Amino acid sequence: GPMSRAMKSKEVDAFEKKFGYKPGRIRVAVDALAVFTNKDNPLKCMSLPQVDAIFSKTRKGGMRSDVATWGQLGLKGMWASKPISVYGRNSASGTYGYFKKVALY
After folding, report:
1. pLDDT band of 35, cuts 50, 70, 90
2. CA–CA separation, 23 vs 55, rounded Å?
3. End-to-end CA distance of the chain
4. What is the pLDDT of residues 58-83, one digit of tens each?
5. Are 46 and 84 in contact (CB under 8 A)?
6. Spatial contact of 78 and 71, defined as CB atoms under 8 Å apart
7. CA angle 13, 3, 59 (to 5 degrees)
8. Is 72 helix (H, G, I), strand (E, B) or coil?
9. Is 69 helix (H, G, I), strand (E, B) or coil?
10. For a designed S-S bond to 75, which of 8, 27, 61, 70 qualifies (C-beta 3.0 to 4.6 A apart)?
11. Residue 83: how many CB atoms within 10 A of its CB?
12. Are 98 and 31 in contact (CB under 8 A)?
């Protein structure tokens, strides 16, 4: 099926074993990657170091601590103490690998 990454050699081998030939590769689209917030969230943007501090425990982007609330990104009032809920692809996804490489340093 469609993939957002190149096949791993073990996947190519399994395909060839099952079908008797190597799989072909046809580029049909380009992935886009974005981080979204709820439509009611007043946050206008996030820096890559902030994204790294939200999604990664290593914080190689330079933030001094994990970012767990919207107040840590500058939101005030009722948003300040609201926790950030993180959703994303699983680690087997090519999209996850790309996000990790580009956004998590």
Report:
1. very high
2. 34
3. 29
4. 888 889 999 999 999 999 999 999 99
5. no
6. no
7. 105
8. helix
9. strand
10. 70
11. 8
12. yes
* Angle at the Cα of 22 from the Cα atoms of 17 and 27, rounded to 5 degrees: 135
Q: Which two tokens stand for residue 77?
A: 């009032």
Two structure tokens written together for 31: 């992935």
pLDDT more than 90, % of the chain: 58
Q: What is the pTM of this model?
A: 0.71
- The token pair at 44 is 């206008």
Domain 33-103, architecture per CATH: 3-Layer(aba) Sandwich (3.40)
User: Count of residues for the chain?
Assistant: 105
Distance CA 88, CA 10 (A): 25
Q: What percent of the chain is helix, strand and coil (3-state, nearest 5)?
A: 35, 0, 65
pLDDT tier, 18 (very low <50, low <70, confident <90, very high otherwise): very high
User: In whole angstroms, how far apart are CA 99 and each of 3, 38, 57, 76, 91?
Assistant: 15, 20, 15, 28, 10
